[in-house]
Write a structure and sequence with these properties.
The chain has one domain. It has 18 helices and no strands. The mean pLDDT is about 95. It is a multi-pass membrane protein. Keywords: Endoplasmic reticulum, Glycosyltransferase, GPI-anchor biosynthesis, Membrane, Transferase, Transmembrane, Transmembrane helix. Pathway: Glycolipid biosynthesis; glycosylphosphatidylinositol-anchor biosynthesis. It is found in: Endoplasmic reticulum membrane.
Length: about 375
């Protein structure tokens, strides 16, 4: 078995293990609560996607969601399939594709770390994270290979799924202008482009992908007569508006007190994790800048700014899944070799503890979501 096959085999094994853990957790919640499989897989935002799939954007609040996932669910329904189960199957398959792309961007342990992320439950249900990550990670990988038209096509598809596609376009634009980026150990070597004319051409390909978002804005304007329909839906449904990050932090700190959620104390923990996720995002962007991976730095930074310069920190935990440079860094640290026998043994212990902690958090997080509790 060659190195590439071993890399993919390890990722596939971890994918199967995490999917098994999620399935067992889902059935345990069903046994405990009496809920059906369809119910545990269709919590929270899934209801919005199902509503759009069935009725379009009849509810103005649903305009906060991009049409990619609802269109896929609608196609499944038109074929006589369960929209919820079909969406869950697509998400799980997309999670495997995303992890395989990450293994090429940063080594097999990067893909494994992503699969073991505590919030991986969102890659097992009809949410946007898995499908977006599959499209975005492969788009980035193709750009590193110098295959910009294909990269732009996948980026355009990612823009259909969630607004984060704009941040992907921004990162790809910087990658195009910089002519390449460093390649960590275990990653495919990025193509370097010395020609400024070629860089300009690649930039045009990257920017073309962003036209999808403009098309969605025009569509919402045709429905509502407002160019602010998406922002209005964000404000109406999730009280999101632009604020300095310190004010958003202050509001989020209030939400970390258990007294704020007397009937659901786990929400306080979720908001504590939201604050930690924002900090991780800024540190990841700084780390990318130190490595001079300018495109990756911009890709992460604009996301963290958008998520922290708002009324409160919400859904940042899920957004961590989109930050592939974080998992590349984790994989790079975990795969280091050399040093004394004691150092190597200590590294193995730390990795084993990290895997165990990741699995425990993954199961805890999944049990909250499947039971209908707030999970970011």
């Amino acid at each position: 078995m060659n190195d590439s096959a071993r890399r993919d085999h390890l990722v596939l094994t971890v994918w199967l293990a995490t999917r098994l853990a999620l399935v067992v957790t889902a059935f345990a919640v069903m046994q405990r609560t009496g809920a059906s499989l369809d119910t545990v897989l269709s919590r929270w935002d899934v209801q919005h996607y199902l509503a759009i799939a069935r009725n379009g954007y009849a509810d103005p609040q649903n305009m906060a969601f991009f049409p990619g996932i609802p269109l896929l669910l609608r196609a499944a329904g038109a074929a006589g399939l369960s929209m919820t189960l079909s969406g869950a199957l697509l998400s799980n398959l997309a999670a495997l594709l995303a992890a395989l792309a990450l293994a090429r961007l940063g080594g097999s342990l990067a893909g494994c770390a992503w699969l073991l992320a505590p919030m991986a439950v969102f890659t097992s249900v009809p949410y946007t994270e898995a499908i977006f990550c599959a499209l975005a990670f492969w788009s980035w990988l193709l750009a590193r290979r110098g295959r910009w038209p294909l990269s732009a096509g996948l980026a355009a598809a990612a823009c259909c799924v969630r607004v984060s596609g704009l941040f992907l376009v921004a990162g790809l634009a910087v990658l195009a202008l910089s002519g390449g980026e460093p390649s960590p150990a275990g990653a495919e070597t990025a193509v370097r482009e010395p020609s400024w004319r070629a860089r300009g051409r690649n930039l045009c390909w990257a920017l073309l992908a962003g036209l999808v978002v403009l098309g969605f804005v025009i569509y919402l304007h045709a429905l509502t007569g407002s160019w602010q329909a998406w922002f209005g839906a964000q404000r109406a449904g999730w009280q999101r508006s632009f604020l300095p990050p310190w004010q958003g932090l202050q509001n989020t700190l209030f939400a970390t007190h258990p007294q704020s959620w007397p009937n659901e104390p786990s929400r306080a923990w979720m908001f504590r994790f939201e604050i930690a996720s924002v900090a991780i995002g800024y540190l990841t962007a700084i780390g990318c800048a130190i490595r001079r991976a300018w495109g990756q730095a911009v890709y992460v930074l604009v996301q963290v700014l958008a998520l922290s310069c708002t009324t409160w920190f919400i859904s940042v935990n899920r957004a961590v899944l989109l930050w592939f440079p974080l998992f590349v860094a984790i994989g790079s640290v975990a795969s280091r070799r050399g040093g004394s026998m004691g150092l190597r043994g200590g590294r193995v212990v730390v990795i084993a503890a990290g895997v165990a902690a990741g699995l425990a958090l993954l199961v805890w997080w999944a049990s909250l979501f499947y039971a209908g509790h707030w999970a970011s």
